[in-house]
Amino acid sequence: MKLLTVPNRGFTLIELMVVVAIIGLLATTVLASLESSRLSARDAQRVQEARQLVTTLEYYRNQNGRYPCSGGSLLCAAGSAGGATEATLKNMTGTYAGMAATLRTGLNFQPGRDLSNATAIRYRVRSASGNSNDNTDPASYTLVVFLEKQNTYCEINVGTGHDAYSYNACPVSGI
Question: CA end-to-end span of the chain, whole Å?
Answer without folding.
Answer: 77
